[in-house]
Amino acid sequence: MWFPGSETGFAMRRIKLPTAAVAAALSILLLAGCGQEQTSTTVHMITDNGAVIIARENRASGVVAIQFYVRDGAFFETSEEAGAANLLRTLMFSETESRGPGEIQRAVEGLGGYMSSAGRHDFVQYSVTVPAGSFDEAVELLQDGLLNATFDPSRVERERERVLEDIEDMLKRPVDRAYRLCLSEMMGDHPYGRLVEGVPEVLSELTARDIEERYRERYVGNNVLVAITGDVNPVAASEKMADVLSGLATGVLAEPVSPAVTWPAESRVVVERADVRRVCQVVGFPGPGVTDRDNVTMDVLLFILTKGRSSRLNTRLKEELGLVHSVSAGWYTQRHPSPLFVWMELPEESIKAAERATVELMKEIVEEPVGDDELAKAKMQLKVGNIRMVETAEGQAFHDGYWNAIGGEEFASEYLERLSLVTAEEIQRAAALYLGSGIHIAAVVLPD
Question: Among 161, 254, 354, 418, which one has the highest count of C-beta atoms within 10 angstroms of its own C-beta?
């Protein structure tokens, strides 16, 4: 998985050891890199009500990261619910029966920490990072927010208006608008084609009662995963979190509301004029999902295409042909197959030529193996990025939470080994599968 602005994959080798605590499997994680071997202990626990806890020791700094992952998001919404998961996410950990609006966040900050949340298609995520000595106090605050959330109708209305404003602002940014337009055209009725933030018309009809009912239904043991990483005893930390999660009902495991992904059968161009200042074009191609064997291979291909000034996209479209002001590419690894995108800001007169040059560049990768130097550089960049990200408490917690939440734990655990085995021939084969047909969607946003 890689997307501009993030270096992900977060993989490491895992060696299972015998059980050392009730309902907990301990493992030793060996992180290869910089000529050093680092070890840490991990506890993997499943509570009686189905919640998953992954607690990892990381003594590199005196902090602890706690991240909650809930099986909710667009992937678990019908079209009539589009945006309910994200609206609920903005309201969680804000007000409880005993604490007023914002008290939990202010209390976390008072401990010297910070908290945030994020909505994704495959899950919603809540993150707290505090000094390790404040772990117990932070867990007590999170317990109240998780178990005793309240949803005042006036506050729900204010949050809804804020989310609607965020959607409006986002769609004024040409890159975001073109990306969303391309995503919708490529994914059709699949939830991945919708905004994570929701559909404005649906959001406008949601009530405080709808939000509370979703909270009662989705925030249950079966749908919750907690990742803890930091300067803590992982056994004690997992047991404390298990006590918190025992207050959740077992509930019903949320099931995806999604058809299988079907890619477009032919290329097409969609154009919108909007209140934007710059021209943007996004070109989308089919891509794999988290369990597909080509996932790591496509990561390497993406780095060859887009990482750095010497990348193929930058060299061809910007420096050689002078067609674009800027160009990049990326994709998200998700449960279901997800598109690979190339986006560019460019003069209006260059739109067709830039689209054509992008497709031709993809076909060249199919027809001719990448060079040894290109391949080695991309693999090293990915390896370094993966190792660097898991060095932080937040990065390791995200590693454990993200990959388990989308069903990619095996993918993550094998990432570096699979990366080392990627060859030029493998890249050609994967490129032929996803890019060789040349079928794509080009989405263009122009100023009014």
Answer: 354
In sequence order, the 6+-apart residues with CB closer than 8 A to the CB of 427 are 297, 300, 301, 304, 365, 369, 370, 375
Check: CB of residue 260 under 8 Å from CB of residue 434: no
Structure confidence by residue, pLDDT tens digits, 81-138 = 999 999 999 999 999 999 999 999 999 999 999 999 999 999 999 999 999 999 999 9
The angle at the Cα of 285, spanning 284 to 290, to the nearest 5 degrees, equals 110
H runs (alpha helix) in 227-367: 234-245, 295-306, 312-313, 351-367
Tokens at 274, concatenated: 């909007």
What distance lies between CA 270 and its chain's CA centroid? 26
Structure tokens at 320: 């050689």
Strand partners, 56: 42, 229
* The pair of three-digit structure tokens given for residue 230, joined into one six-digit string: 């930091």
3-state secondary structure of 285: strand
Report strand pairing: 280-285 vs 52-57: unpaired
Three-state DSSP state, 193: helix
Q: Whole-model pTM?
A: 0.88
What are the pLDDT digits (tens) for 41-97?
889 999 999 999 999 999 888 999 999 999 999 999 999 999 999 999 999 999 999
Q: How far is CA 300 from CA 117, 234, 322, in A?
A: 30, 34, 25
